[in-house]
Design brief:
There is one protein chain. This protein is an alpha/beta fold. 40% of the residues lie in helices and 13% in strands. The protein is built from six helices and four strands. A four-stranded parallel beta sheet has the order 2-1-3-4. It is globular. It starts with a strand and ends with a helix.
Length: 152
């Protein structure tokens, strides 16, 4: 039996949607096929995002920035989660009309400015907020595991 497909969608597919993909795959990959994409992909994952995910043992191996166009008309998603306001406003209606659409807005790690240690601290907060949101949603779905319950 195939697993429901889950898409994290944002504008650049360089930060939030990539973190969402990594977390859901780690927490519940046995329950979902997980994807991420961007409306205007940046072409790479933001280096600070890779750093903070590596810190918690999720190196995001095999993930890369990609366009939502790779999936349009080819993949049917059971869940589409937009993680930024820009993607929410511009999301192709085909994704909003299939499956369940969720809007989980998070601050954009790629837009944070400041000294490197300040940027790292802020991106860690966003990372942890995303992890908790995904854990909470999984618990609401009745999906519980040691990976979901653990603290970072």
């Amino acid at each position: 039996m195939s697993k429901p497909k889950f898409l994290f969608l944002c504008t650049g597919n360089s930060a939030r949607s990539q973190m969402g993909e990594a977390f859901l795959r780690a927490f519940a990959g046995e329950h979902f096929d997980v994807f991420s994409a961007g409306l205007e992909p940046k072409g790479e994952i933001h280096p600070v995002v890779r750093t903070v995910m590596n810190e918690i043992g999720l190196p995001m191996e095999g993930q890369h920035s990609k366009s939502v166009n790779e999936y349009l008309g080819k993949v049917t998603f059971a869940y589409t989660v937009t993680v930024c306001g820009g993607a929410e406003e511009k999301c192709p209606r085909v994704f909003l009309s299939m499956g369940k659409h969720l809007f989980w807005p998070f601050e954009d790690p790629a837009a944070i400015e400041g000294a490197p240690d300040e940027v790292l601290a802020k991106v860690r907060v966003i990372r942890d907020q995303m992890a908790e949101k995904i854990r909470s949603w999984l618990r609401e779905q009745g999906i519980e595991s040691a990976k979901i319950a653990q603290d970072n």
